Amino acid sequence: MKLKWPNIMFIGFLLSTVAVTFSESESSESESSESDIISRFQQYLKIKTNHPSPNYKQSSEFLISEANSLSLHSQTIELVPGKPLVLLKWVGTSPDLPAIMLYSHTDVVPAEHDKWDHPPFEAHLDSDGRIYARGSQDMKCVAMQYLEAVRKLKQWGFQPKRSIYLAFAPDEEIGGHDGAEKFSLSRVFQDLNVAIVLDEGLPSPDANYRAFYAEKSPWWLVIKAVGIPGHGAKLYDNSAMENLLKSIESIQRYRASQFDSIKAGLKAIGDVVSINTVFLKAGTPSPTGFVMNLQPSEAEAGFDIRVPPTVDTESLERRISEEWAPTWRNMSFTLGQFKQKMYGRDASGKPAITKTDSSNPWWALLENAVQEAGGKLGKPEIFPASTDARYFRNLGFPAIGFSPIANTPDLLHDHNEFLHKDEYLKGIKIYESIIKAYASYDEHEIDERFKDEL
Ligand SMILES: *[C@@H]1O[C@H](CO)[C@@H](O)[C@H](O)[C@H]1NC(C)=O
């Protein structure tokens, strides 16, 4: 059949109308859902879950209502009264396969309101697209990105093979003892049959995302020197101050050697022992300050040391007892509670490290999934501080620290913590890709396919 001009024009008109209508409805839909996505993030940020009295009731209610809107199973677990952990579940089609755990903490550190350009609990979106709030990086972003990614996957009709758990835990910022620690040891957690835990990472100042496979252990060291007191005008050896200062000099040299290897680009922060002087305590008080003509008989200094699991701890302990606090220099030392508790070690006393080689399929899956979503992972790192991930690693579960935040300054615990909305939205796409890859992963199926190829 031959079409006459008017007919062709009519069809053309119809097509263009359809096209216009379609693209309009698509763009208005994505715009409205984008503003919905941001506004849900803002709602969570506005909940004051800051210490010392986090409002866990409100955060739990909010998370449960999100879960309901997504038709996820939900339960609230109170292993310690008043400290709820919200656990959501998206049931997989092969629920016998070990599950995926998307983990986050609900609490945030306090904020000094007067030092912020925008109030820390108003989640102000500025004209550049930055969202200012305590928790915007650490780690309410990740919690909501998990949920938004699940929302998108559900909209597309994606069916996870493995079950997916989302855990929102209290108290990470005060050590996680009533949160992750008790949860990891609970019957509830053991029954979940978890294969892999995802927890928080750190923002990256460049385009590569950061991912963490282990973390440093804090050693809180206090060294103390005692000596003969004396007149402030007298020169003599072995005063408490002199002996303490000798140690501090030695510690400073060690600190510089560690720091130099970072400055030279040879090592990352996670690979070296960091050591910082956090207090000095000495002097004889007077009504106006300190007595100036007296050399005191006691002097103390405190250090926050962070030790990577790759470091030989015995030699570090020797360094402390032989160089930094030797008894022959009339010195003594104490190491904070974490040291005694075999922090960051598994049951056999070995460093708790998640493998990043081919023995751990979850690492490669993460790398590929991030890449497929248009991102890139940097070299695997050791987390310089502590996260709840250690409790799971200590029990032998692989756990990866990852927050999809690139091109952003690290403002964890800092004033004016912010996240750009585009970076947040990109992070949701990254999680869509990761959740899809993780929830679909079935080693047996791959084996089968491999057999076919043979
Ligand atoms: C340690 O203390 C003793 C007793 O006060 C003193 O005789 C000695 O010189 C001190 N040694 C050092 C190295 O400070």
TrEMBL record:
Zn(2+) 2 binds at residues 138, 173, 413. Its main location: cytoplasm. Residues 214-322 form the Peptidase M20 dimerisation domain. Residues 1-23 form the signal peptide. GO terms for biological process: amino acid metabolic process. Gene3D superfamilies: 1.10.150.900, 3.30.70.360, Zn peptidases. Its EC number is 3.5.1.14. InterPro entries: Aminoacylase-1_M20A, ArgE/DapE_CS, Bact_exopeptidase_dim_dom, N-acyl_aa_amidohydrolase, Peptidase_M20, Peptidase_M20_dimer. Keywords: Cytoplasm, Hydrolase, Metal-binding, Signal, Zinc. Zn(2+) 1 binds at residues 105, 138, 200. It is found in: Cytoplasm. It comes from the Eukaryota. Pfam families: M20_dimer (PF07687), Peptidase_M20 (PF01546). Its cofactor is Zn(2+). The active site is at 107, 172 (proton acceptor). One of its GO terms (cellular component) is cytoplasm. Binds 2 Zn(2+) ions per subunit. One of its GO terms (molecular function) is metal ion binding. PANTHER family: AMINOACYLASE-1. Belongs to the peptidase M20A family. This is N-acyl-aliphatic-L-amino acid amidohydrolase. It comes from Vicia faba.
